[in-house]
Amino acid sequence: MVMRITVKLFATFRENRFKEARREYPPGTTVADVAAELEIEAGLIGMIFIHGRAAELDRVLEEGDVLALFPLLGGG
Amino acid sequence: MPKVIRVNMTDLSVRIEEAPAAWAGLGGRALTSTVVAAEVPPTCHPLGPNNKLVFAPGLLSGTAAGNAGRMSAGAKSPLTGTIKESNAGGTCGRMLGRLDIKAIIIEGQPASTDAWYNIRISNEGVVVEPETETVGLNNFAVLESVARRYGEDKGVITIGSAGENLMLISNISTRDPEGKLRSFGRGGLGAVMGSKRVKFITIDQDGTRPVPLVDSAAFKAANMVFTKALKDHPVSGQGLPTYGTAVLVNILHEIGGLPTRNFTSGQCEHHDMISGEHMYDTIVARGGEPTHGCSLGCVIQCSQVYNDKDGKYLTSGFEYETIWAFGADCLIDNLDLIAECDNVMDDLGVDSIETPVMFGVAMEAGILKFGDGKEVLRLLREEIGKATPLGRVLGGGTALVGKTYGVARVPVVKGQGIPAYDPRSVKGIGVTYATTTQGADHTAGYAVATNVLNVGGKVDPLSNVGQVELSRNLQIATAAIDSTGLCLFIAFPALDIAECLPATVDMLNARFGTKLTMDDVVGLGKTVLKLEHEFNLAAGIGPEQDRLPEFFELEAIAPHNVKWDMDQKELATFWNF
User: Fold this and answer.
1) DSSP 8-class letter at B170
2) pLDDT above 70 covers what percent of chain B?
3) 10 Å Cβ neighbour count for B340?
4) pLDDT of A76 over the 90 cut
5) Are the beta carbons of A74 and B453 separated by less than 8 Å?
6) Could you write out the DSSP letters of every residue in A29-51?
7) Average pLDDT over every residue of B349-357
8) Residue ranges of the Aldehyde ferredoxin oxidoreductase N-terminal domain (chain B) (predicted)?
9) B566 to B266, B388, B546, B570: CA distances (angstroms)
10) Are B254 and A68 within 8 A, CB to CB?
């Protein structure tokens, strides 16, 4: 069995990767696992959102989750 | 001794005074607000003879401190009826610092509306002369005229036709190091300058010497710590220089806080077309500059030069708020059209937040269709630019257009358009909009940092818990930073890197020989907020106006299906300090 997760990447995380992709992961996969698989250094991650709400690296993903990963960014 | 220049436009007299000792520790917003609170009757008409327009560089202006290019303009606002401070980068703050001028105070009003004037300030003194050549011209033509008549290297503070026509959306513009424009954007200060019949001010720093430092070794050491913090923090060191402020488009869309179609949704379908990432790719592909500073000594370089598809200059200083407002709130899905609107707004001298937020309401009113960028350009050039009757209604801003056309969904606080973060899904910024002395203003206490960006800790944006305290702390700190002349974006490293803010205090002490502590700086922020609040109360802007428009309580916003539900009594605790 696999989970289908939509992964969205932003800013520098898109370089040599993608903007948005539907990917499959085994049950129990965490945000940190996805980052590791995409070779995104955990320390560079500034914001994690699942369905538009803040989440942490150790969050276990669920079928159909939309995961967005941003480096630390600001403006105003 | 530091000087204060008073120009009385009633009799065209100039007085150059020694700055009062009580103003020694004040600069920027602290000084403009002190002067306005002390000298402007709170009940005066903002466009009458009793209002005063005050310009003040910051305490560190003119020094080699990194990112010290910001200066303040203050007055009673014709848009909000409150005290107002707007600030901008450019070249003038640094020049005024070198000239040892703490403030320029423009008072009174000519009895006749036949003539316009220019004011020219240099080491030799101050000249006030009738102005004819640039009357009726817009800002880029004013810059050309000033460069031809007085030299390319002069600082310029100017109004376009919107300011001449006393429109509430008008701003005051100032020249950047490359001859483009930065703006004292908010609150209709262009109309105040127009009401004084001043078309432009030039600043000439010829013959000045470097700003004296009481302890130059300590200043250098503190400046190194400070600029290192700016470079080390990922926001000021990498994100802003690469993507500019528009990098926020995708973030706010993702969390459902990107006000769309006149604040009826928190997400915008074409967000990627108006994003900082798309802007960066476009700028690079067309040979523009993604990384660019608005003032000398800027380490962050969040500005950019955006070219058209033929590689010709289209605009610069292309900000998130402008792009959000036209792109999402007005549904214009074409970044080139938005850039053209930005350039026309710079030229006319209108606030690039108030103007597009107003257009969102105008679209809801049926004056034009959502998404019609070409019609926005026509209305800007042919109606607002020519001050036709329709142009004057649009030029009256968001609240006036809403009233004129009977629109109930009008995103303003104290008459000023709400910027680019929906207060239902970013509740901390809602507290700032409601309580700031300035009318809706995100910069007054940027709770987005802690609600969304994970800078300065984390406070859940969808919960009311902790938001009043967060906004209060940020508003106090911001009022203090606004007084130094330092760019507000130093707040990002300051919130995360422990050495950053103490280094700015060390620079102040090394500059003036003072022994200020962090507590003193926080105290200054509190003092500024309180005197601004007192002014507003005396002007008749009471606690009942410290609230968001009703529609935020009535209409839930997608995708989180949230309303504004902060208790008004809790909001009122903001002032308990």
Assistant:
1) B
2) 100
3) 20
4) no
5) yes
6) -BHHHHHHHTT--GGGEEEEEET
7) 98
8) 1-207
9) 18, 41, 12, 7
10) yes
For B557, which DSSP code? B
Residue in A with minimal Cα distance to B420: A76
The per-residue pLDDT for range B438-456, each reduced to its tens digit, is 999 999 999 999 999 999 9
Biggest CA pair distance of chain A: 44
How distant is the Cα of B482 from the closest Cα of chain A, in angstroms? 15
- Domains of chain B and CATH, by start: 3-203 (3.60.9.10), 241-422 (1.10.569.10), 425-496+515-577 (1.10.599.10)
Indicate whether B1 pLDDT > 90. no
Max CA separation in chain B (angstroms)? 62
Task: Kindly state the average pLDDT of the residues B498-525.
Answer: 96
Q: Kindly state whether B457 is in contact with chain A, defined as any CB-CB distance less than 8 angstroms.
A: no
Rounded CA-CA distance B319/A76 in Å is: 8
A52, B560: Cβ pair inside 8 Å?
Answer: yes
CB spacing of A11 vs B442 below 8 angstroms: no
Q: Binning pLDDT at 50, 70 and 90, where does residue B429 land?
A: very high
B442 close to A (CB below 8 A): yes
**Local confidence band at B566 (pLDDT 50, 70, 90 cut-offs):** very high
Question: Which among B442, B462, B560 has CB closest to A76?
Answer: B442
Start-to-end Cα distance in chain B = 35
Q: What is the mean pLDDT of residues B23-43?
A: 97
Based on DSSP, count helices (H) and strands (E) in chain A, helices before strands: 1, 5
Do the chains contact at A75 and B245, CB–CB below 8 Å?
A: yes
Phi, psi values for residue B104, rounded to 5° = -115, 125
CATH number, span A3-71? 3.10.20.30
| B233 and B496 Cβ atoms separated by less than 8 Å | yes
Distance CA B55, CA B72 (A): 6
> Using CA atoms, how far apart are residues B318 and B303, in angstroms rounded to an integer?
7
- In the prediction, which pLDDT does B114 show? 87
**Could you tell me the two tokens for A43?**
């320390």
Round the average pLDDT of chain B to a whole number and report it: 97
Question: B530 at the A interface (CB within 8 A)?
Answer: no
Contact B381/A at CB under 8 A: no
What CA–CA distance (Å, rounded) separates B402 from B77? 19
Q: Among partner residues B245, B251, B559, which is closest to A47 by beta-carbon distance?
A: B251
Compute the distance between CA of residue B239 and CA of residue B320 in angstroms, rounded to an integer. Answer: 13
B324–A contact, CB cutoff 8 A:
no
Please give, one letter per residue, the 3-state secondary structure of B68-82: CCCEEEEEECCCCCC
Residue B238, min C-alpha distance to chain A (Å): 8
* Domain boundaries along the sequence of chain A: 3-71
